Amino acid sequence: MTDWTEKYRPTTLSEVRGNNKARDKLKQWADTWEDHGDAVILHGSPGVGKTSAAHALANDMGWPTIELNASDQRTGDVVKRVAGEAAKSGTLTGGTAGRRVVIMDEADNLTHNADRGGSRAITDVVKSANQPLILIANEFYDMSNSLRNACETIEFRNVSARSIVPALRDICRQENIEYESEALEAIAENDSGDLRSAINDLQAVATTNGKLTRDDVVTGERDTTSGIFDFLDDLIKKQDAEGALKASYDVDETPDNMLNWIEDNLPKDYEGRELADAYGYMANADRWLGRVRATQNYKYWRYVGDNMTAGVAAARQGKKGG
Fold first, then answer.
1. Taking Cα atoms as reference points, which of 228, 211, 256 lies closest to residue 46?
2. In Å, how far are 19, 250, 254, 289, 293 from 297, measured between CA atoms?
3. What whole-number distance in Å separates Cα of residue 5 and Cα of residue 195?
4. Contact 53, 13 (CB under 8 A)
5. Helices (H), 96-160
6. Is position 220 within any domain?
7. Residue 212, beta-bridge partner list
8. Cβ 129 vs Cβ 87: under 8 Å
9. Based on the structure, what is the number of domains in the chain?
10. Whether 180 and 215 share a structural domain
11. Are 140 and 110 within 8 A, CB to CB?
């Protein structure tokens, strides 16, 4: 099944929902880049359209993209080599005046141990680049002062329910799904400004019978919550590796959400060596998830699932009570 968040990702800035001021400011940054040459940081909560806006802008400007993701295992040397070379050299064909844009997602993760030196390296790249750079971050203040001060900054705020509902309505029409307006409003309100989650929720409840009612939304919420807790109980306490993987197929959650659920619940029952081993598998799952985001290649989701289910179950030393 095609992921609707990808199928309906905006291709131009005019299609980006909500955040009109941020969208206009980003376009102005691009239009005047030849004059100022600054990098820009797009920051805000997950699911508010930062990455989509960056790629939509690149389409509007005719700029080819070079993508990096801080979930990849990077060091300062890798950042300098990949981002630095991309940012200093133009393209001979394609793009306005040979321009290409470097988009670095999850740039706030550069301060983590796995990216030791990465923040310092990207600050150096930002200061010396002669190509546009867009850094994307959820947690603005997790980035170093020197990096923040070297860039223009644009905040993306939570998308209002008023902006989410039309997006959901358009998808329903494209998918030939009958809908009650109250159902779309309920999804929009439930997802607290996260458009991506709202689209995921719409897909989860609307693809069963091609029709969407307010009751479907309520039932979907109840079934999803019940299903994830049953799965977590089996995964953490009972299932072997193969059984855990098979059980995950029946859980109506995105890999991102499932990873968070498992991570939050592991310390309740795992400890010592088994907890350390389980976290090792979770880290592997997170790296594969980062690769999915960076490449948009969803075949890697199988490796996310293998690590966060079969791997976590294999780390457990016997079954647990409760």
1. 256
2. 28, 22, 15, 10, 8
3. 9
4. yes
5. 118-128, 145-149
6. yes
7. 179
8. yes
9. 2
10. yes
11. no
Residues 69 and 171 in one domain: no
- Band (pLDDT 50/70/90 cuts) for residue 192 is confident
Specify the amino acid at residue 212. L
Q: Of 155, 181, 208, which marks where a domain is finished?
A: 155
pLDDT tens per residue across span 137-185: 988 888 888 889 999 999 999 999 999 999 999 999 999 999 999 999 9
DSSP tag of 160: P
The identity of residue 226, as a single letter, is S
pLDDT for 107-131, tens place per residue?
887 655 444 556 677 788 788 778 8
Strand bridging mode 151-155 / 65-69: unpaired
| Helix or strand run (H / E) with residue 4 | helix 4-7
Q: What is the C-alpha separation between 131 and 193, in angstroms, rounded?
A: 32
Q: How many CA atoms lie within 13 A of 309 on its CB side?
A: 23
For CA atoms 231, 232, 233, 234, the dihedral sign is: positive
